[in-house]
Amino acid sequence: MPVLLDPSRLSDPRLRPVAEKAMSDRRLDQDDALALFATTDLLGLGRIADFANQRRNGDRVFFSANQHINPTNVCVLRNTCVFCSFARMPKEEGSYTRSLEEVFAEAEQARDAPTTEFHIVGGLHPKLRLAYYTDMIRGLKQRFPHIHIKALTAVEIAHLARIEKCSVREVLVAMREAGVTSLPGGGAEVFSSAVRASIAERKLTGDEWLAVHREAHGLGIPTNCTMLYGHVETAADRVEHLAALRSLQDDTGGFLTYIPLAYHPDHNELGEALGKTGSATTAFEDLKNIAIGRLFLDNIPHVKTHWPMVTPFLSQIALSFGCDDVEGTVVYERVYHEAGATTDMHLHYDDLVGLIRGAGRVPVERDSLYHPVRDRFDGPARSSPALVGV
To answer: Could you tell me what percentage of the chain is helix, strand and coil, using 3-state DSSP and rounding each to the nearest 5?
Structure first.
């Protein structure tokens, strides 16, 4: 049963109408969301979000046994996405592009692990063609037919369409036929044109990002969605971004999960300009963005905390603030560690189970599509999973 919620006991009166809407399952409007971003009653906000999440997901918290693969960090937007620490120019120190055999060799780490998902994203390489990615996906599926492949952001897909002089739809169809299961949600940043002009001038516009995901949903390819917060955006920018995500979900129902992403300022031009190092966001902001995402995005089933960005410790706390997914094992995370993330590169399967149990929740291993894979953990993590319903 959901946690008990008494609006009259909330210290911030602005939260009370939101709590009443949550209790009666009524949709929040943008003014409600602005009030939530303005509140200092974090615990009250968390209680409302926890109520909304438990009504939808109960005490279950999902995680995946996944492996991140980043085929290249070479990117044509290296000098215009000023918040990014991952990208390199082709001949810049630290640049790399994996051959397919190198990608397959890295993927072999999944051979003796309980991996069920490859998460593949990278830079916008000026010379890698669509065939490189479809051959990669086919090769991974041949070697690991049981593993789902979540591959390429909307930005990468649009880039491939430009290179191939074809439509986004044609790229998506080719990827689906090669074996892609779903798309990640990266590249959304914040949809505000003013914000994008400041932090990612030549990247896809917000409307273009949404159009790629709309096309994917129309082809039966589910996707994730994100928002990058903690840089130059305002609360109003965040709310408009969330409203656009919610509107697309009303139309298509294709988003699986929402992931708020905390900006990291180290080793990038934006961080230098803002004079920030270490973490650009506070735990207060991180938890608030999780909770507001859960309350405002009433039509997206899941809200994920990305532990490599905010630490496993904070991700555990987020499970009481409307969150029902803690990401996964990851294996080797490059993108956010280049930007100064100080977390481990991976979490062991057993550690994820312990993190969820330690928060008083019920761990459920999932695949890319949120089908439960395992919900009993009384044996070794690397043994054959106990299948739900078997």
So the answer is: 40, 15, 45
In a domain, residue 1? The reply is no
Residue 234 carries which DSSP code? -
CATH of the domain at 285: 3.20.20.70
What angle, 0 to 180 degrees and rounded to 10, lies between the N-to-C axes of helices 206-218 and 154-164? 90
Which pLDDT value is given to residue 382?
Answer: 43
Average pLDDT in the 299-319 region?
94
Q: Is residue 25 in a domain?
A: no
Span of 196-205, 232-241, 312-321, 374-383 with lowest mean pLDDT? 374-383
Are 213 and 223 within 8 A, CB to CB? yes
Asked, for residue 34, whether it belongs to a domain, the answer is: no
pTM: 0.92
Distance (Å) of CA 87 to CA 78, 84, 161, 214, 314: 5, 7, 20, 27, 27
Range of the structural domain that residue 158 is part of: 56-368
54 close to 324: Cβ distance less than 8 angstroms = no
Residue 125: both structure tokens together: 């390489």
For residue 384, pLDDT beyond 80: no
Joined together, the tokens standing for residue 385 give: 């999973």
In this structure, what are the phi and psi dihedrals at residue 345, rounded to the nearest 5 degrees? -75, -20
Residue 61 has pLDDT above 80, yes or no: yes
User: What are the residues whose beta carbons fall under 8 Å from the beta carbon of 336, sequence distance 6 or more?
Assistant: 264, 306, 308, 309
The whole-number pLDDT of residue 30 equals: 98
Element (H, E) at 62: strand 60-64
Q: Report the number of distinct structural domains present in the chain.
A: 1
pLDDT digit string, tens, across residues 125-146: 999 999 999 999 999 999 999 9
Instruction: Look at residue 169 and tell me if it is in a domain.
Output: yes
Reduce the DSSP state of residue 223 to 3 states and report it: strand
Cβ-proximal residues to 47 (8 Å cutoff; 6+ apart), any chain:
3, 5, 10
Residue 160, φ and ψ in degrees, nearest 5: -65, -35
Distances (CA, A) of 44 to 3, 145, 304: 13, 46, 20
